[in-house]
């Protein structure tokens, strides 16, 4: 058995801000994917994945049936038969490994599911998002439901506010463009839950809340608008500001060995770094107007280009 593929995602803008109603923009990233599978000679990874699916099935069995009903019997039977999630999506890297799994489970086992083929009204998107938030909170403690939504629909998603999300189009990539968005591999895994609790702790501080509203959210919203309009000049101006704000106020989320590199990008304008997901490790996102320059400046690191301007 092999189920359909579900892709990883990249939240281009909006990490942490969307908790406080900033705009956000999330895009599918087809380089990584995952699917539900069973096979006769499972690897050690498959066996471990199967074990955690067993715990997950028990969790889903207790979920509020007014929200979503699963065919738990089939799910438990398949898990007993050795089903696992075969995934190339790195865990703890901020590209939505649990999101793809949640999307795959919903797709296969939810009764009366909302499908990708129907007219996706705002109401349906919000319903899906709240189902996915509940399903994914098994992995993170608290989830916005956006990662699975992105993975399930395989469409870019524009977050205008908590109650206002829509599938959107993004400007076509220019294949020979010098400008690029890239992933920078930190080489270490990040954990979402501890990073989110540092953020929530900081939110008790009046000065931090002001900074979030007047700087972080302001530049995040501007970046989303610039990106969707294709206004590259303004986008880089706002990304630089965003990179500075993160450097000055989100230090714990940036692995210590990258502090210097982060600042160097701002000082030289060769590239600007920002968090990809909750930070603390995994990938960082980079924006550059000249990918050759950025590659030269970051030659000791692994870069993956995800979008060209």
TrEMBL record:
GO molecular function, one term: kinase activity
Domain of life according to the entry: Bacteria
Domain GHMP kinase N-terminal: 83-147
Keyword field: ATP-binding, Kinase, Nucleotide-binding, Transferase
One Pfam family per UniProt: GHMP_kinases_N
The keyword ATP-binding is annotated on this UniProt entry: yes
Matching SUPFAM superfamilies: GHMP Kinase, C-terminal domain, Ribosomal protein S5 domain 2-like
Nucleotide-binding listed as a keyword: yes
Record-given protein name: Mevalonate kinase
């Amino acid at each position: 058995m092999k189920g359909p593929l579900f892709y990883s995602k990249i939240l281009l803008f909006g990490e942490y801000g969307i908790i406080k109603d900033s705009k956000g923009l999330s895009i599918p990233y087809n380089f990584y994917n995952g699917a539900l599978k069973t096979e006769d000679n499972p690897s050690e990874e498959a066996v471990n994945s199967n074990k955690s699916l067993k715990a997950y099935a028990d969790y889903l069995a207790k979920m509020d049936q007014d929200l979503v009903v699963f065919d738990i019997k089939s799910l438990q039977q398949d898990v007993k038969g050795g089903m696992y999630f075969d995934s190339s999506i790195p865990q703890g890297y901020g590209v939505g490994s649990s999101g793809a799994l949640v999307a795959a489970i919903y797709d296969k086992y939810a009764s009366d599911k909302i499908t990708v083929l129907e007219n996706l009204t705002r109401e349906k998107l919000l319903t899906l998002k709240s189902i996915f938030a509940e399903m994914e909170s098994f992995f993170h403690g608290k989830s916005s439901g956006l990662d699975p939504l992105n993975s399930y629909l395989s469409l870019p998603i524009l977050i205008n506010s908590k109650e206002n999300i829509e599938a959107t189009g993004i400007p076509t990539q220019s294949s020979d463009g010098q400008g690029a968005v890239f992933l920078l591999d930190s080489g270490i895994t990040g954990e979402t839950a501890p990073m989110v609790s540092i953020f929530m702790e900081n939110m008790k501080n009046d000065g931090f809340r002001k900074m979030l509203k007047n700087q972080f959210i302001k530049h995040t919203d501007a970046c989303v608008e610039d990106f969707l309009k294709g206004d590259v000049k303004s986008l880089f101006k706002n990304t630089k500001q965003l990179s500075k704000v993160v450097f000055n106020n989100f230090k714990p989320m940036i692995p210590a060995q990258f502090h210097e590199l982060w600042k160097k990008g701002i000082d030289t304008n060769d590239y600007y770094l920002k968090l990809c997901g909750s930070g603390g490790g995994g990938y960082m996102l980079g924006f550059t107007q000249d990918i050759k320059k950025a590659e030269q400046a970051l030659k000791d690191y692994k870069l993956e280009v995800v979008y060209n301007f």
